[in-house]
């Protein structure tokens, strides 16, 4: 008892002051109470992925820096400011994966994934790393789940399928009020004329433009439309709209995507100024917004030029991704509790050393039968153990004392109505199964 009291006092002291060792800024622990939510998201991802015939892929956390510098574009915020760079002893320049799409494109060519037939549909889940200022819904290590479709022609039906995968996942998680914000940023040909008009508009308003956008308009013009600065927001309100500059092919492509979305009844809002922050996107771009949240919980788009930029070949592709931490924040805000799947309904109470020892082998018998049993071997009194069983919301308590061990029996107590009876130990697994049906 004295040891327990000392440990409790020590823990209180630690909580009351800043510890010498903390998790790294922008990175966080996923605690036991949040694990049911994470498991819910993982299971839903797997279910949706398999239903729509996506195959699971996992890529390494470390990748060559060159593929992201080339693939994402050197003028992007990710490459300029946000990549975690690692120099190896051999002099190689690696990065902690800042996103999945480029890594998956590398894997597609490296392993000849076209052998699976065209298109190849892949889904993933895992951590990504970006060095940015931590804030609501934004971390330096965060997790993404996503769906990629590689190797098909630039058919708008695949744009819709990429959106559909992420949206059906959102539905399965029972997130309400989620809308797709969608736009087309055209192709290289029609985008060039639009960029000239955009540059002219921002240069005309150069004195009102923020410092960052002065650089962006020279290096990566579309990125000015992503700026959150109030002054730049006012300039954007009068900026030319890219949809007015799309060529016939890009207009037809976008119109078809919207028609397909209408067909599967996915709500969308055309956001004429929506662009994505990475250079590899063309034509369809989109983001998912949940009601009551001012940041996107996910997004994606078509990236037909990425493989050529990486000098790997020509390959049409499209994909979508959701930020797991952001999705979980929306889940928490919904107020719907998520119970741990397969939570134990049976609690083993022991009294005495012989009962504790016999209890170990008894739990193994339940394990072989596919049933979970919780216990509190660190507590000795009947009252304290039953209190834990009640807190765990166990349906049945199995009470094993010295007398019961000697008689090869055990007491089953119904925690809801308080009745109890003695049952032979040889029949206990069968009896518990019967009562929990």
TrEMBL record:
Domain Aminoacyl-transfer RNA synthetases class-II family profile: 43-331
Enzymatic reactions: tRNA(His) + L-histidine + ATP = L-histidyl-tRNA(His) + AMP + diphosphate + H(+)
Protein name: Histidine--tRNA ligase
Location(s), subcellular: Cytoplasm
Name of encoding gene: hisS
Organism annotation: Candidatus Wolfebacteria bacterium GW2011_GWC2_39_22
Amino acids binding L-histidine: 99-101, 130, 144, 148, 276, 280-281
Assembly, per entry: Homodimer.
Pfam families reported for this sequence: HGTP_anticodon, tRNA-synt_His
Family: Belongs to the class-II aminoacyl-tRNA synthetase family.
GO MF: ATP binding; DNA binding; histidine-tRNA ligase activity; zinc ion binding
Record flagged with keyword Glycosyltransferase: no
Enzyme class, spelled out: ligase
Record keywords: Aminoacyl-tRNA synthetase, ATP-binding, Cytoplasm, Ligase, Metal-binding, Nucleotide-binding, Protein biosynthesis, Zinc
EC identifiers of the protein: 6.1.1.21
Main location: cytoplasm
GO cellular component, one term: cytoplasm
